[in-house]
Design a protein that fits this description.
Length: about 150
Amino acid sequence: MDKECRDKGSQWSTVIFFNAVIMSAIFVNMFCAGFGGIMPMCRLVGAYFASILCLSHLAVIVMTAVFRYSAMGMLCSLSSSPTNISSTSIDDAWTYQTDGRFMIFCFIIQLLTFVLFCLQGVCNIRPFKDAVPKAPYNPVDETNKDSQINIS
């Protein structure tokens, strides 16, 4: 079990990868929905994928918390070993501790963007007063009495 646990690792790179994928997908979706002002089909595609992305976003948030606060994740966050190792040198600017803090930062940002992203789909945007369409033309109108035909 210890060898399997060591080989599996903390899986933090998986968490960072999925955070990057979901945030990129949300960016593309918001761009598509924003472009929908010109092309209605883009708005439709953006609205359709928003619910799918919202559920995927929730899964990434849960995955971030699970892997960051797992037993291996907690041990890794205490380590001051460098994580930025190239073939020629070791840069100790990024350690497991800074990676753990970065994951907490990602988790908080994910929670905030998740709430905003979900509210975007359920909030009703009211039109301006001037944007409300006027009543259709009524030929029998008080202002148009002279042009009425009297049949008696």
